[in-house]
Specification:
Chain lengths: ~325, ~575
């Protein structure tokens, strides 16, 4: 429990760090909110008008004071107002988030349910053709960019099968699960493909290590059947690196969603970030990035809890 | 009646061409029901591979049986040739017919399952017990291996138990399937000597109770003297000698057996202690340690410690030039911490350390236990030896090079070793390198922390001889830390026995070993296996080492010493 408390304490510190980074880096880009909002017309503003607008947006203040104001709002759950949507940012995020979360979770589910069995299979057949096949597949998976795979999937679906996944609008899972899944399954495969490949590789090498452990030999010496040696004795020990990878990879999945949502024209958080950046909606970029960072931290907290569930040495302490 | 197990001309090889890489090259033996066979040999002799071939676990380590036969009499009376058996049949054999316990109790139990679940699994697989029956069966097994408070231990995970306890769990797990043959592969090598004695006693008792046959694999011929009916000595994949235990020990036929019996340090209760260099009073000690205290805080809050581990609690001794002080004790007794504190590798809480050196800026050097881990694999010998000198501001010049070749010669390595890398040397040679490295700065004192423990027994003897020669030549003082009484007996002039962070007995080696006064020293010496004492059986003793975690502010009571002869002091035992 102490271990968990420690994790929870570092939580706000990391978020604070992320907020500073995001806040500063977006201000390093040339141009400001006024140019972004008005475009070329911004050049026609008189200095007085410009100053008035700047003071309205608060960008005439020094950066640290802008930051503190924003941080104050953040602490009250107020992420500010988006200039492009003219609505509270928090409500926009909540609207877009379910899609991205579902996409990432689905991608992870696909990756784990393909990657772990394949990795285990390859490890138990170390050096044989099936192992080589799995390793080749994993290499291919890791080196195929998601935009290539996504476009290929769309191409094959539409040209060969005449099916186009529904784009633009999003049907939430609770409204129509079937429609929802048929819309998300291909983006999820696209997103999870590379992840599945790295899960395969990690679980293969972790399994290979564990299979040569003394306790596996002990299990065999008492006559445990081969299948049970692998799944009951070895796998629980091999899962720890897989879980670690999953936590880190979740961040990449959220990042990868930016590309996949663009390819499949899905209105998720990734598209939102992209729009916000290209239209220089400072508050929206800050808000979404902080939100994504927050989710990343929550997932890694879950990963830590999963360690404790998997490994009694962490759960119960001791040597 | 045909024997339980008949091995004929067994050949086992490894790798892609097992025929060309044979590790076992034609071993034959018989084992009758209820009999105990000890297989004795050094690392690489093929003893473990032979054992693992009997239940074909060798297959999973990349080995192949390339010739010969292993015939097992099964419980139903049928004979089975293990070498040709299918994996399905072998699964029936493993556990039910042949149980096995391994060397490393720390890694041989699955860390993610409770010990109860691991024993229950054996009962489920091999005795068809399920549910409540399996649970009570597991409890029964823990009781049989004398684990105190067995009921609550069932829910423990392996990491919550000590090494000795884990080895008992391993034995319980193997016995749960009631095998007719138990293979024990160095089951006590990783354990402390008093724990070893307990495990040996337990195995002997269980053998009486169950009537099972045993194959006991060890490098320590003294250990099996009391338990084996027959001994087979292996060297280089061959059985060089096998006979009744007494015949092998008293009338060894083969040179290698004679070598094992004579060259290897065997404990003789002080008879082999050194007689050179008795303590003079006129010389000044090179190291004086006075009231050394090392503590490690316990508890996670650094501002409000829940107490401290009193790793070393008030240790005093002195060391004369040219003298060896052996520090013996079991794991956790504080002997290594004492060494580290003297080298200032560990911060000491209290205590004075006076070093009067005549010749070096770094008068104390150290040799560590593991010669494989303590040499950087990416540096060649020249760089390894130059390192301490360079670190102390010397330059790599002709004089330094000369010193390197001089020391290499002294430790018995060829001069062309300078350009070679650590992996090109054997374990014994590496330890010689470590010794040469420690001598580079011309120290007064060398601390040897279990310096020969990782070496094969016959190599041990040679390195000990080397150390004694070097001591005479350079007038070195040694602080020799070891858990192995037989080794300490060979090299120490004086012995300090450590228990629970304190020295409980110190004095002349011969006096301490032949006439121990403190109850712990007596227990320790009684636990040491010896060929001479082969008919004197180990007894079960469940005394636990006291916890060294003390509440904040705790100070141990003042030590009161009793003189037990010229140079022999014993700490008075207090009832706590």
């Amino acid at each position: 429990m102490h271990y968990l408390a420690q994790r929870l304490l570092t939580f706000p510190l990391i978020l604070l760090g992320v907020s500073v980074l995001v806040f500063v880096s977006i201000r390093l880009i040339p141009g400001d909110a006024i140019t972004a909002m008005l475009g070329t017309e911004a050049g026609m503003l008189t200095p007085d008008q410009r100053a008035a607008l700047a003071s309205y947006f608060g960008i005439d203040q020094p950066v640290w004071s802008q930051y503190l104001r924003w941080l104050g709002g953040l602490l009250q759950g107020d992420l500010g107002i988006s200039t492009i949507y003219a609505r509270p940012i928090f409500s926009i995020i909540l609207e877009r988030f379910p899609l991205t979360l579902e996409l990432a979770l689905l991608a992870m589910l696909i990756a784990l349910s393909i990657g772990i069995p394949l990795g285990v299979l390859a490890a138990t057949r170390n050096g044989r053709p099936s192992d080589l096949g799995v390793r080749l597949l994993a290499m291919l998976g890791q080196s195929t960019p998601s935009f290539v795979l996504g476009i290929m999937i769309i191409f094959v679906l539409s040209v060969a099968f005449g099916v186009v996944p529904p784009m633009g609008i999003f049907t939430p899972l609770w409204q129509d699960p079937l429609a929802n899944l048929s819309q998300l399954i291909f983006p999820a495969i696209t997103l999870g493909f590379a992840f599945a490949a790295s899960v395969t590789r990690i679980s293969r090498s972790a399994m290979l290590d564990v299979l040569s452990e003394d306790y596996v030999r002990t299990a065999r010496s008492k006559g445990v059947p081969a299948l049970s040696v692998v799944w009951h004795h070895a796998l629980p020990n091999a899962l720890i690196p897989v879980v670690t990878l999953s936590g880190v990879e979740f961040g990449y999945l959220l990042g990868g969603a930016v590309i996949v949502e663009q390819i499949f024209a899905l209105p998720g958080l990734g598209r939102l970030v992209l729009d916000a950046i290209s239209q220089r909606d400072y508050a929206l970029v800050q808000g979404t990035v902080i939100f994504i960072a927050f989710n990343f931290l929550v997932v890694n907290l879950l990963v830590d809890l999963a360690y404790a569930a998997l490994d009694p040495r962490i759960r119960l302490g001791g040597k | 009646m045909s024997p339980l197990l008949a091995v004929r001309d067994l050949h086992v090889g490894f790798g892609r061409a097992p025929k060309a890489n044979e590790v076992v090259r034609g071993v034959s033996f018989d084992l009758s029901a209820g009999q105990t066979l000890a297989i004795v040999g050094e690392s690489g002799s093929g003893k473990s591979v032979t054992a693992l071939s009997i239940n074909r676990l060798v297959d999973f380590g990349g080995g192949r049986i390339t010739g010969g036969s292993i015939t097992l009499q099964r419980a139903d009376g049928s004979a089975l040739d293990i070498t040709g058996a299918t994996e399905k049949t072998l699964r029936q054999v493993r556990g039910r017919d042949i149980g096995m316990i391994f060397q490393e109790p720390m890694t041989s139990l699955n860390p993610v399952h409770t010990i109860g679940a691991q024993i229950e699994e054996a009962l489920r697989l091999n005795r068809d017990l399920t549910g409540q029956a399996a649970r009570s069966g597991a409890l029964d097994m823990l009781d049989r291996v004398r684990i105190p408070d067995a009921k609550s231990r069932l829910g423990y995970y392996p990491h919550q138990l000590s090494g000795g306890m884990r080895q008992r769990v391993m034995i319980a797990m193997a016995l749960a399937s009631s095998p007719r043959l138990l293979i024990a592969d160095e089951p006590t090598t990783a354990l402390d000597v008093t724990v070893q004695a307990q495990i040996m006693a337990l195995l002997a008792e269980l053998r009486e109770e169950t009537g099972m046959a045993m194959i006991f694999i060890t490098h320590d011929i003294g250990l099996v003297a009391g338990i084996a009916d027959r001994i087979m000595v292996m060297q280089g994949g061959l059985a060089v000698e096998q006979d009744e235990t007494d015949a092998v020990l008293d009338r060894p036929q083969h040179d290698y057996t004679r070598h094992l019996l004579s060259a290897v340090p065997h404990f003789t209760a002080g008879k082999a202690a050194r007689s050179d260099g008795p303590r003079g009073t006129e010389t000044k000690p090179v190291v004086v340690v006075d009231d050394l205290v090392v503590r490690f805080p316990v508890g996670r809050n650094p501002f409000r410690p829940a107490g401290a581990v009193h790793a070393v609690d008030g240790v005093d001794f002195d060391l004369m030039p040219g003298e060896t002080l052996g520090i013996v004790g079991e794991s956790g007794s504080g002997k290594s911490t004492t060494a580290r504190a003297i080298l200032e590798l560990t911060e000491r809480k209290r205590g004075r350390l006076t070093v009067s050196s005549s010749r070096s800026r770094r008068p104390i050097q150290m040799v560590f236990q593991d010669p494989f881990a303590s040499l950087n694999p990416r540096l060649n010998v020249e760089a390894l030896l130059a390192e301490p000198a360079i670190a102390n501001g010397q330059r790599k010049d002709a004089a330094l090079l000369e010193r390197m070749t001089f020391l290499l010669d002294r430790v018995g390595l060829p001069a062309d070793a300078l350009t070679r890398y650590p992996h090109q040397f054997s374990g014994g040679q590496r330890q010689r390198l470590c010794i040469a490295r420690a001598l580079m700065l011309n120290p007064d004192v060398v601390v040897l922390d279990e310096a020969v423990s990782a070496l094969d027994v016959s190599v041990q003897a040679k390195v000990l001889d080397l150390l004694i020669d070097l001591q005479r030549e350079f007038g070195l003082a040694y602080l020799f830390i070891s858990h192995d009484m037989a080794v300490v007996e060979r090299i120490a002039h004086r012995i300090a026995v450590m228990f629970a962070g304190q020295i409980v007995e110190i004095g002349n080696a011969q006096a301490v070993l032949s006439d121990p006064q403190h109850s712990y020293t007596k227990r320790l010496i009684a636990a040491v296996p010896a060929i001479e004492r082969r008919n004197q059986h180990f007894s079960l003793d469940a005394t636990q080492v006291p916890s060294l975690v003390r509440p904040p502010g705790y100070e141990p009571p003042e030590a009161v010493w009793r003189q037990a002869g010229g140079d022999h002091q014993v700490r008075l035992e207090t009832v706590t």
